[in-house]
UniProtKB/TrEMBL annotation:
Record remark on domains: Consists of three domains, a large central CORE domain and two small peripheral domains, NMPbind and LID, which undergo movements during catalysis. The LID domain closes over the site of phosphoryl transfer upon ATP binding. Assembling and dissambling the active center during each catalytic cycle provides an effective means to prevent ATP hydrolysis. Some bacteria have evolved a zinc-coordinating structure that stabilizes the LID domain.
Gene Ontology terms describing biological process: AMP salvage
Organism: Clostridium oryzae
Protein name: Adenylate kinase
EC number: 2.7.4.3
Catalytic activity: AMP + ATP = 2 ADP
Amino acid sequence: MKIVIMGPPGAGKGTQAKSISHKYSIPHISTGDIFRKNISEKTELGNRAKSYMDNGELVPDDITISLVVDRITQSDCKDGFLLDGFPRTTFQAVALDEHLKKNEDYLDAVILLDLPKKFILDRMTGRRVCTTCGASYHIKYNPPRVAGKCDVCGSAIIQRKDDIEDTVKERLEVYDLQTQPMLEYYNKRGILKNIDGTQSIDSVFQSICNVLNSMV
Ligand code: ADP
Ligand code: ADP
Ligand code: ZN
């Protein structure tokens, strides 16, 4: 199964992607996590991406597309993958399709976590993430079992630099202007699956499983 999970910042993509990846045994590929890892390791890719991310802007398409194409060409993606945070522009969506088409392949579904704006600031400013494994928590809605520590790997959990109010507002504008138009591209192809992202974490996961199970 080759799927994309998308939605505005804070919709719950990362949280759901971890569960989907586990249940359906497909690798979870998050462009945001890959960029953050490269920034913390001070690689060339990290240096190129950092200022865009800190300002809440998109990393340029050429950097991002080649990163994803390299990743999905690896052998663990042969039978499927789950892309989280990519594509984010119609240009990226077309590039992904063209890459897949070369191998007579295609996306099975694009899951859209739909969330009205009024929920977003609260989700983003309360988010805390693991510095090692990328697991995401929320101070109110999904706190870790031990304060400040990741349930999965025990590492420290921190607030992301781009999760402060001003940068969140910038990211929402970027979503409206650059990502939202991409929905029409997938809608026309009939593979866009709308999920109500305002439900509890468990209910959102159940809704996603219902959609994915109905496809196989
Ligand atoms: P995204 O990857 O779409 O930016 P995350 O999965 O990191 O979103 O979730 C954003 C924040 O909201 C996190 O703090 C997460 O714990 C919390 N969260 C995710 N899903 C829900 C939900 N259904 N209800 C309440 N809080 C949620
Ligand atoms: P969120 O989970 O809050 O939606 P991500 O972790 O997916 O955020 O992305 C964080 C940042 O990484 C984005 O604001 C952007 O700067 C960069 N980024 C991630 N994916 C892409 C992409 N497909 N194209 C361009 N920039 C990206
Ligand atoms: Zn962790």
